[in-house]
Design goal:
Blueprint (H helix, E strand, L loop, with lengths): L40 H4 L1 H31 L5 E4 L3 E4 H27 L17 H17 L6 H13 L1 H7 L22 E3 L16 E6 L9 H8 L1 E5 L8 H6 L4 E5 L11 E3 L4 E3 L6 E3 L5 E4 L8 E2 L1 E3 L5 E3 L16
Antiparallel strand pairs: 1-2, 3-4, 4-5, 5-6, 6-11, 7-8, 8-9, 9-10, 12-13
Helix pairs in contact: 2-3, 2-5
């Protein structure tokens, strides 16, 4: 449709050269300019500005309290506590309280920042022409001047209540993440340094669940054993067997190169930890001719005739040996616990 066919009352009116306007009578794409700035109540009433300041400070303060509530919830509620909360139903008290308090802490920081920007910071719209990517000295000076103006208009230096509470909220909320590091697992304390093995504990065959006797172990054979009294249906069976599992091998005494290994054995029967010292995989591949055992995970290889030292692979230290003997009933028994922690190294070992 041409301009002659458009009703006169619908034709664009002539634009003036008022605030931000561009001359261009009859041009439908003319720049209409920026609307006139309308001051907010906070701009003209200091009491309203102070009310906004207190509202922002209240949000930041509540955020701090929510962060403290997050930490307190983590300490107070046990992992297995279930509560009924309408309309969610039965939920974990710990998960619900952590999610609620952390969500409030983050939301209140954001809400306080938005309310601060909308009511107290300058809301004057500024239009600027496009310019080349490379900044000229004049542009740099203008940027620094604009930054100084923004810092001054934010009233961060003058509104000390907002500034201090905002810094407090921002400083406290990261503590939520620090507290969550506690969920990396229970503190090991001294649990990694000891196993169920003790003096007098009989070696039980893990296949037959019967005590092992010296005649049950023939030269070149590989047998797996666990401590007497450990039951497979026990709630901590997996935790205990992961430290106490044994490999029982019989080697001709003359073929044992390591003196201590020979002394800790019984008639050539040696007991080594089954747990690889690299990342804790169970070792089960035995080479009868060489007396080498191979970890199937990363191919760490240990020489069981020479103190189980590492001869290949990423493992960092030999397999621990358990000192064994024979009791009055003729069954193999431990003469104590391992003298060093089994499995991979850990940060406090030493």
């Amino acid at each position: 449709m041409s301009s002659q066919q458009i009703p006169e009352e619908n034709l664009p009116v002539e634009q003036g050269t008022a605030h931000g306007a561009v001359e261009g009578a009859g041009d439908p794409f003319a720049n209409p300019g920026l609307p006139a700035h309308r001051p907010r109540i906070q701009d003209i009433d200091e009491r309203a500005a102070n009310r906004s300041e207190r509202a922002v400070a209240l949000m930041f303060t509540l955020s701090m309290l929510a962060t403290v509530g997050f930490i307190a919830s983590y300490v107070i509620f046990p992992v297995d506590k279930i509560v009924y909360i309408w309309p969610f139903g039965h939920v974990s008290a710990l998960n619900f309280s952590l999610g609620l308090t952390l969500g409030l802490a983050l939301f209140l920081i954001g809400a306080g920042a938005v309310h601060w920007a909308r009511t107290l910071m300058s809301d004057v719209e500024v239009a600027d022409d496009r310019h080349a990517i490379e900044a000229t000295p004049e542009v740099k000076a203008k940027v620094m001047a604009d930054f100084a103006d923004g810092a001054r208009e934010s009233a961060l230096g003058r509104r000390k209540l907002i500034r201090n509470t905002m810094f407090g909220a921002l400083a406290l909320v990261p503590l939520s993440g620090v507290v969550l590091l506690r969920d990396l697992g229970p503190l090991p304390e001294k649990k990694l340094r000891s196993t169920l093995w003790a003096k007098g504990k009989q070696l039980v065959n893990m296949n037959t669940m019967e005590p092992l006797r010296p005649e049950d172990v023939v030269v070149g054979s590989l047998t797996f054993a666990m401590p007497e009294g450990l039951e497979e249906d026990a709630h901590d069976f997996q935790t205990q067997i992961a430290k106490a599992a044994l490999m029982i091998i019989r080697i001709e005494p003359d073929n044992i190169k390591d003196k201590r290994e020979r002394e800790w054995a019984h008639e050539g029967i040696v007991a080594f930890s089954k747990i690889c010292t690299h990342v804790g995989c169970p070792i089960s591949l035995y080479e009868q001719q060489t007396h080498h055992v191979l970890c199937p995970c990363h191919q760490s290889t240990f020489d069981l005739s020479d103190g189980a030292r590492v001869i290949f692979g990423p493992a960092g230290h030999p397999l621990p040996q358990l000192r064994i003997g024979v009791n009055s009933e003729g069954n193999l028994e431990a003469l104590g616990d391992f003298e060093e922690p089994v499995g991979p190294a850990f940060w406090e070992r030493g």
